[in-house]
Design goal:
The structure is a single chain. The chain has one domain: Rossmann fold (3-Layer(aba) Sandwich), CATH 3.40.50.300. Helix content is about 40%, strand content about 25%. It contains 12 helices and 12 strands. A hairpin with a 2-residue loop joins strand 6 and strand 7. The longest helix is centred in the C-terminal third of the chain and has 17 residues. About 40% of the residues are buried. The C terminus is likely disordered. Keywords: ATP-binding, Nucleotide-binding. GO terms for molecular function: ATP binding; ATP hydrolysis activity.
Length: about 280
């Protein structure tokens, strides 16, 4: 059973509200014996209500594997995941489908996430079954509200096929589909990496605005520490499956403690004044 917002806020840990999500000692091993690879190695972290937390690291650091475990698309080899204090690590069946309503995702490639034989209208209407909308009018209102939030109009996209949309429009539709379910946690896994630079900041603004509008926590996954600086309250830095540094964004960016974090920051482009 999902706890009410009042029950969640009443829970205290060391005098503070309990986290929305807590990952404890998550480990994921692929393969066996000498060929085994520890993609995620004993990682623990929390996500607070309405926080934007970014996991940053290079390709192969384990960040996407960690995101898939949080989404319950991949079982951890060991460790646990707790949502509002409930252990959700081994959910199956109806309980897992309920979890997927509370925890939604926006992936790197929206094109592969859509059924190419469905119009946008049909794609979004199929998601309405999880929203509890009882009438067509209520469902259409949810669709229009979500599209408006991401900067699209129903007339602009609903009767189009996915291939007729631009990359930015497809990503916005993907975000709208997630927002319709009013999730408590949105996991955005490299959600801007396939977009032109001119579109990235716009999509990042859409996501961060949704935090307030939908009372939502965001877990943002990226290889770009510059984007982490732009959107985050806190940053978690992963390297070779391990969490090597974490803290408030200003602390991590301006006073990094780990050499790997310093290397990531050194790769961020800087603008220099021209004399």
């Amino acid at each position: 059973m999902t706890a009410s917002k009042e029950e969640v806020l009443d829970r205290q840990v060391d005098g503070r509200p309990a986290p929305l999500l807590e990952a404890r000692h998550l480990t994921r091993v692929f393969g066996h014996g000498k060929t085994a690879v520890r993609a995620v190695d004993d990682v623990s972290f929390t996500l607070g209500r309405q926080e934007v937390v970014t996991i940053v690291g290079e390709s192969g650091s384990g960040k996407s594997t960690l995101a898939r475990m949080v989404l319950r698309l991949l079982d951890p080899t060991s460790g646990t995941i707790h949502l509002d204090g409930r252990d959700v690590t081994r959910l199956r069946g109806k309980a897992l489908r309920t979890y997927w309503q509370e925890v939604q995702a926006v992936f790197q490639d929206p094109f592969s996430s859509f059924n190419q034989f469905f119009t946008v209208r049909r794609l979004l209407r199929r998601s309405l079954r999880l929203t509890g909308a009882t009438t067509d009018e209520a469902g259409e209102a949810l669709i229009a509200q979500a599209l408006e939030h991401v900067g699209l109009t129903p007339a602009e996209v609903l009767d189009k096929w996915p291939h007729q949309l631009s990359g930015g429009q497809r990503q916005r539709v993907m975000i709208a589909r997630a927002l319709m379910l009013r999730p408590r946690l949105l996991v955005a896994d490299e959600a801007t990496s396939m977009l032109d630079a001119s579109l990235r900041a716009n999509i990042l603004n859409v996501l961060t605005d949704a935090r307030q509008a939908y009372d939502m926590t965001i877990l943002f996954i990226t290889h770009d520490i510059g984007q982490a600086c732009y959107v985050s309250d806190r940053v978690l830095v992963m390297c070779q499956g391990k969490l090597v540094e974490q803290g408030p964004v200003d602390e991590v960016i301006f006073s990094p403690r780990h050499d790997y974090t310093r290397r990531l920051l050194a790769d961020v482009p800087r603008l220099h004044a021209v004399s």
